[in-house]
Amino acid sequence: MRAVLMAGGSGTRLRPLTCELPKPMVPLLNRPIAEHILNLLRRHQLTEVIFTLHYLPDVVREYFGDGHEFGVDITYAVEEDYPLGTAGCVKNIASLLTETFFVVSGDSVTDFDLTAALAFHRQHQALATLVLTAVPNPKEFGVVITDEQGRISRFLEKPSPGEIFSDTVNTGIYILEPEVLDYLPSGIERDFSKDLFPLLLQSQIPLYGYVAQGYWCDVGSLETYQQVQYDALQERVQLEPVGRELYPQIWVGHNSIIHPRAILRPPLLIGHNCRVQGDVCLESGTVLGDNVIIGSRSHLNQAIVWGGSVIGEESVLDSCIIGRRVRVDRHAIVQEGAVIGSRTRIGEESAIGRGVRIWPGKQIEAGARVNQSLIWGSTGQRNLFGYQGVAGLANVDITPEFAVRLAAAYASTLEPGTSVLISRDQRSVSRMIANALIAGLMSVGINVLCLEAIALPISRFAVQSLSVCGGIHVRLHPDRDEQLLVEFFDHKGINLNQAKQRQIETAYFREDMRRVSFTDVGRITYPSQIVETYAQGFGKWLNTQALQQHECKIVLDYAYAVSGAVLPELLNKFGSDVVVLNATVHQTPPNTEERQGLLRELGQVVQAIQANLGVQVSANGERLTLVDDRGQTIAGEELTALMADLVLSAYPGGTVIIPVHISSAIEVIARKHGGNVMRTRANPTDLMEACQKQAGAVLGGSAETGFIFPQLHPGYDAMFSIAKLMEMLALRQQPLSEIRQNLPQVFHTHQALRCPWIAKGSLMRHLVETHSPTTLNLVDGVKILHRDGSDWVLVLPDASEPLVHLFVNGREQAWTEQMNHDYSQRIHEFAHLEPNEVGV
Description:
This protein has 840 residues and is an alpha/beta fold. It has 21 helices and 55 strands.
């Protein structure tokens, strides 16, 4: 039987280690990852191996040759022109695969029982079997659900946090029958997880999952590369060691000399022909490659040092990675998480800071203090984008230096010479970051249209009217004190989707953003009459006659956070009497308690002047809270239901688009008006895209995000929402207080419950497995339907915090309270289990 070992990966997330080395050739315990895979295949009598190669193929061929030295017979298949993807490269060698065969990813480390997996495949007469395993955090992998017979019923590649319905994932090891390749076109890039397996599921082809026991790790980042080294030293995975075990858990290669005064703390590995001099301390977790010299009185703690490197006297290496033939001179310090590329020279008494990456062949002068990577800057967190955009503490996480690199990464995904719009709120810190973003964009050859301080809805509208390729808006985070939020949107004004966000993150983490010559640096312009253009579009979609006849009186409270110059001027044109409160912008926004106090004052003013309604605007013009004619606040689920009722009464038969967790009162209202309800995942991008794509959409969003009227633009817009609200009140000829009294009563609760990241996937799988499939809705999170579906429980993982959100929706208060208690208790108990108890 043959096995296909996919060894063409370039390993961009392992740079600078993979700048001159294919990912499968990265050493693990001084042997390439691919060699450990060959050893595993050989142990299970899989001795005919086909390597598929693309990136630096000669490195692989020169090392493994024909395979006889490794006990296997190797054939090579090189993708010469362009990569064909995981499935495309296997289709490319279909003529060599005439019977059942294995496919193994060349960047995974495992000791799975492949013989047992093959027996499972044959027992079930499967055309394709995926080898699966359970992991603590399934976000970066393909999540899989199988039935009792092991047949795969659902598969989703790299889900968003809300889509994690299991902790069982695809390991990249497959057992396939040759007929499966008939479903793939020849010479075209195709992926097993994204293309072939979903097609097989759709075609109801027998697709099975074998849940393997044992160790598995996808070496997808520098952090996991370090971790798998330590796991191997601690014998958590069965790999063949290099050298002899000189002392318990201390392996030493041949011809290595260790000074008697050297301190060795297990577990650790020393390669062949090494020299460890006097008073050296090698702490547990240290791996030395072949031909390494460690100078006297040096201290290495969990350091990984590749072959041929020389570490000078009294140097300190702490949890770092040192590439091939690196010279670290005496008294140098390399701190935790730093990665030094091959052939680099670190000068005497120099210090390399935490997390710094240095590309191959660089020279660090003596005494230098390097706190940023040598290319464009220091590495940051794994994921830049959160629920809405890129968020962080103002001038701590979101600094001018970070903003320049972020903008350059974004601009590197665009064509040179294109234009991007940039805007911000009125605060000084936002201006500082916006200016840094402008510099980053221009440095990559992108032209900038700067709107300066303006409400976010106007900025989204301007993206369309100015025909730019995208936009960036900087503002204080609407929900988190002291944080800034940088939002990116496309040419329609819609927040960038996950695929585009990943492109930006890849460019940022690879740190290879392009730079243009000084003659091609982008230009900056300041468009005029943007507010006037917005006002024209604003009036186009309003029933101005109804507004003028109604003569509505409204009180607007800007809560010291949004410019008050735009909306009153627009509403005055339509005959409305507008009273504005708190329009001065403060650098520090009001907290929750202060905002509630302002709402009470707003209610008093509404009653005092007998206004039709009051509105408090927030989130830089995106969100609103209402006060009715009696001075009572309307917010949350009630506000969402009120808006849906007003819009559907004006547009009967229309479609309202809401997030999955909003109460079922919306369905009751829609039936009353002959309308429809569409539910989407609970993130802003999905809502915006659905409002644009869904024919007949008349309203989108909710009180917590803001409301979308797709006619004007695809973003949340409190200003247009207020005008439409006044229009619909004019048409209904009813006071707001009377309309709210007639809204359907639904009991809806929400709790945010602590749940460690490590337990989220297991919790979702537990909920799926302990409920009937007919009662489940997996649009986002796990929704359990009760009775006729009007009553439900939703468990939704938080995208950026170790939390899950529990929503309970019911027609009866007692049932809702009971379910809220039962499921919160269930989640609490599950989240406090030990890791091995939740399947980790």
